[in-house]
Amino acid sequence: MKSNLFALALVAALTAGCASDPNSRTVGEVVDDVSIGTQLKAKYAADPDISALKVNIDTREGAVSLRGEVKSLAIRRKAEAMAREIKGVKSVDNQLVIAP
User: Where is the secretion signal located (predicted)?
Assistant: First the structure.
C-alpha cells in the first residue's frame, strides 16, 4: 500500500510540474499536500470511530478541508484534532456534518 501511495504522490507531483500558470504550486508544495492528505487518511482508516470512506480531505498549501459525515460532535472534534497534529498543516476548515 505504501508503494501505491508513493506512486500517487509522484504522479501528482510530476503532473503539477507541467502547469504553465505562474501562480500554480511548486512540485514540493504538491508533494507536501499529498503527504498531509495521505497521512490523515491513514490515521482515519486506523481509527474505529472515524469512517475514512465518509470523510473527504482536500489540502492546498497546508490548508486542510474536511467534508463528509461523522457520527457525533466528539468525533467531529477528534477528526479536526487529528488533522492539526500532522506536520505541515497550517489550518483546518472542518465542514464535517453529524449524521446518524
Answer: 1-19
